[in-house]
Amino acid sequence: MAGSVPLSPVPPVKTGRSTNRATTEAPWVKWLLIGLAGLVLIWLLILPLVIVLMEALKQGWGVYIAALTEPDALSALKLTLLVAAITVPLNTIFGVAAAWVITKFQFKGKGLLITLIDLPFSISPVVGGLIFVLVFGSNGWFGPWLAEHDIKIIFALPGIVVATLFITFPFVARELIPLMEDQGTREEEAAVTLGASGWRIFWSVTLPNIKWGLLYGIILCNARAMGEFGAVSVVSGHIRGETNTLPLHVEILYNEYQFSASFAVASLLLILALATLLLKSWLGHKAVAEKA
Asked: What pTM, to 2 d.p., does this model score?
């Protein structure tokens, strides 16, 4: 309005409180917290890893190599890799299918399906193994029928595979469900309007969008499959050279006071775990670089 007096900017009101306390703390507080976090990591993670390697090499490279090339150790390694080679692809297929159904469709029982997927996270692996013993064991629900047809599940490879499948099947699905929910269905709907088939939509639209999450879930599933102890311990029967995986073989050697050999085999699991961690980190950097 003509003749009006321009208003001067109102100065901000000082409330006496900092708007970002995290950046105004004294430097010694920051370094104290960083130091405490570092001590916890050293005590709980780095120190045990160093001790495993030191104990494994305590009696020299000869004993170390002998422990890894011993027939029972090689059998345990082969069984561990075989179980992972069976369970990881099956859980990958299940995880992709479950994530697709949950995120792309509305149906009754969706909440129940999500709950069942999370079930292995909620119960002890030992309890999971016991469930299969009660179902497929000699005194279980299907035990007499299996014995009649000379089919061995418990204390054999099928039981180990089934127990590992149960323990590891949430990992791929749980990585993909939040990712696919965040992406929505617009791209798939656009592909449908253009006449694309279901398989074409999956391979050309959905899979490229979820590939990094899928690979991340596969890595986690593989790591758990190779390192699983509780459920496998219940269903394996601890038959040396036949149903012992690497974690079970470590336990047997340790109980027999073969400490150097047990730590040597444990170091092999450690190497596999570190390789998995490096691969996971590499995939994370690749995913960030691709988004940038």
From this structure: 0.81
